[in-house]
């Protein structure tokens, strides 16, 4: 995305860090909006867990999810 922005093949993109910062530093872009401005309480990160762990430890899995949402 950064290269496409530099080459002016695209006008903008929305993505997680560090690509936002790379767009600023490498392509001279300006951050106009944050995802949280558009989607209140958005899930800013993706969490991947082993399905066996999720199934075997549902309470622990939920505690992890709750901690990340609070953070």
Please give the number of β-strands: 0
- Point out poorly predicted stretches: none
Task: Average the pLDDT over all residues and give the rounded result.
Answer: 88
Count of helix runs: 5
Largest sheet data:
none
Helical proportion, percent range:
40-55%
Gyration radius over CA: 17 Å
Approximate strand percentage: under 5%
Q: Count structural domains.
A: 2
* First and last CA, distance: 28 Å
Could you state the order of secondary-structure elements as H and E?
HHHHH
Based on Cα principal axes, name the global outline.
elongated
Class per helix and strand makeup: mainly alpha
In words, what does this structure look like?
52% of the residues lie in helices and 0% in strands. The protein has two domains: 32 residues, no CATH class; 31 residues, no CATH class. The two termini are 28 Å apart. The model has no long low-confidence stretch (mean pLDDT 88). The chain is an all-alpha fold and 71 residues long. It holds the Pfam family NMT1_2. This is Twin-arginine translocation pathway signal. It comes from Thioploca ingrica.
Topology:
Layout: H1 2-6, H2 19-27, H3 35-38, H4 51-56, H5 58-70
List keywords for this structure.
71 residues; mainly alpha; 2 domains; 52% helix; 0% strand
How would you sum up this structure in a few lines?
The chain has 71 residues and is mostly helical. Helices cover 52% and strands 0% of the residues.
């Amino acid at each position: 995305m950064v290269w496409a922005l530099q080459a002016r093949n695209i006008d903008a993109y929305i993505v997680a860090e560090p690509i936002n910062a790379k767009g600023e530093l490498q392509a001279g872009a300006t951050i106009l909006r944050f995802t949280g401005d558009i989607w209140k309480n958005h899930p800013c990160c993706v969490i991947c867990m082993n399905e066996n762990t999720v199934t075997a430890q549902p309470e622990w899995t939920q505690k992890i999810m709750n901690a990340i949402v609070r953070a």
